[in-house]
């Protein structure tokens, strides 16, 4: 993990490999942002003009490297775009700062130390810049640059550039309680988002349900979080027909993991439930070629739940949070669930399986029922559940459904606040009828149009009566296949972690609308 330090040193005096400054997009060209005054002075007040001559505009995410002039203790100045100049008396948007810091950190892969002289109006800006830099510095290199065998023994391959090793936030005061707390919180949250990214990016041959459960157990115990793991024998004995029905086609059996963080001063209890399909082939309803290469990411919901609970524990929030990881591998085989089979869920309801590729709702159904037994104040499930949600909202926005409009609105506001794009979605009652089955209590499929909403209605059937519940369908933003941007890398993104952590913070303080 990239190190983060706060410093009141001047931009012209700190020694580093690079110095990052912010540039905004003005009506007549780039405008040097606050925090970079000393740097601009070193360029004789012509930094904006130099950038303009090089074609820089200050557009969001744009990066331009310049040789540092005399008077600076760094060899390179990196100007990063912040987007449009704010209106008079307004500060830069926190997400703009977060994305700019992320873009700068990505551009500095391979460097040991970089000083960030971006606008820091208050502690919230410190959090945003710190988060962005730490998230942008992420790289998944575990499987690269390893040893290869030859006739003369092992030879070390050339590895990829390593992430920026240290970020120094200039203008952030290490002795200021608010700045220090902001930096500590940003470090915890960014660390856990990056852990979620690592899990999502890990190949499915290494991250089986059993392996995921082992990682969760070891980490939870390290942070004083209670753990319970139900293996295939316990799941069968307990009647978890949904989880076992999905996992029975694989040689790697399923798991249901409970991680419970408690605080002596807690007055509220949240339950987070995550879909953890460590690989999704579609089962007997096999996915076509071109649709299964990235299906190692189908456990992104469970990764978000696991790491958010760990983050809550690290932050010591006065709220009880229980995480449920419904882990299975969905594979075709002679023992796999077939279209037309009927499963008896943990709740006792029977489900006719019309499509084995609609498996996430089956494992979540069992986990939601189990989570409801603790009678929490609210349940939030997180899942890469439907391609329909991607069609509706695109690759960067997750959908929010809930059985309580006010709770759905609160989660939407929280997600937007922390920089995670989301959108509230309905649960139309008429779509529920399309899952009626002549054989079982409910089918796992309904009409194709509105399929993301149908999936939400299915999940609602397994939430305990009177319990507030929300469903986050992160199928779009959980795994990014395009070029990196801002603080978002290629591959696993850690979507929903920041939203869940902020929800826990709001619940702990009673500040949940």
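Sequence proposed for the structure above (513 residues):
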């Amino acid at each position: 993990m990239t190190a983060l330090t706060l410093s009141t040193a001047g931009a012209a005096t700190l020694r580093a490999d690079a110095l990052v400054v912010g540039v905004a997009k003005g009506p007549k060209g780039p405008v040097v942002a606050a925090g970079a005054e000393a740097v601009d002075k070193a360029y004789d007040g012509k930094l904006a003009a130099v950038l303009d001559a090089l074609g820089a505009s200050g557009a969001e995410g744009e990066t331009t490297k310049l040789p540092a002039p005399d008077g600076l203790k760094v060899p390179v100045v990196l100007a990063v775009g912040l987007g449009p100049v704010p209106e008079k008396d307004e500060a830069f948007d926190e997400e703009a700062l977060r994305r700019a810091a992320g873009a700068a950190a990505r551009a500095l892969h391979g460097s040991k130390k970089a000083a960030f002289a971006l606008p820091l109006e208050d502690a919230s800006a410190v959090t945003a810049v710190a988060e962005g830099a730490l998230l942008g510095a992420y790289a998944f290199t575990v499987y690269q640059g390893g040893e290869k065998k030859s006739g003369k023994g092992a030879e070390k391959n050339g590895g990829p550039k390593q992430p920026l090793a240290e970020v120094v936030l200039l203008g952030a005061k290490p002795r200021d309680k608010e700045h220090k707390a902001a930096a500590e919180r940003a470090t915890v949250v960014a660390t856990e988002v990056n852990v979620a990214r690592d899990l999502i990016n890990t190949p499915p041959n290494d991250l089986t349900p059993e392996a995921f459960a082992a990682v969760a157990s070891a980490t939870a115990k390290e942070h004083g979080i209670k753990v319970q793991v139900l293996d295939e024998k316990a799941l069968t004995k307990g009647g978890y027909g949904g989880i076992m029905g999905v996992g029975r086609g694989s040689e790697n059996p399923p798991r249901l993991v409970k991680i419970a963080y408690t605080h002596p001063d807690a007055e509220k209890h949240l339950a987070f439930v995550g879909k953890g399909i460590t690989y999704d082939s579609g089962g007997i309803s096999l996915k076509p070629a071109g649709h299964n290469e990235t299906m190692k990411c189908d456990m992104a919901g469970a990764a978000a739940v696991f790491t958010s609970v760990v983050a809550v524990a690290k932050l010591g929030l006065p709220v009880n949070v229980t995480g449920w990881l419904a882990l299975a591998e969905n594979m075709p085989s002679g023992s796999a669930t077939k279209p037309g089979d009927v499963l008896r869920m943990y709740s006792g309801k029977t489900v006719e399986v019309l499509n084995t590729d609609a498996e996430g709702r089956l494992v979540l159904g069992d986990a939601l029922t189990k989570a409801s037994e603790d009678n929490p104040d609210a349940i939030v499930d997180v899942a890469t559940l439907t391609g329909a949600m991607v069609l509706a909202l695109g690759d960067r926005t997750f959908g929010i459904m809930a059985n309580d409009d006010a709770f759905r609105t609160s989660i939407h506001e929280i997600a937007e606040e922390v920089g995670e794009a989301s959108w509230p979605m309905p649960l139309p009652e008429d779509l529920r009828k399309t899952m009626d089955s002549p054989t079982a209590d409910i089918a796992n499929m309904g009409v194709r149009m509105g399929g993301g909403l149908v999936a939400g209605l299915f999940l609602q059937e397994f939430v305990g009566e009177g319990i507030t519940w929300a469903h986050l369908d992160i199928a779009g933003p959980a795994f990014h296949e395009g070029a990196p941007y801002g603080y978002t890398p290629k591959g696993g993104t850690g979507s929903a972690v920041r939203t869940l952590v902020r929800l826990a913070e709001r619940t702990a303080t009673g500040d949940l609308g």
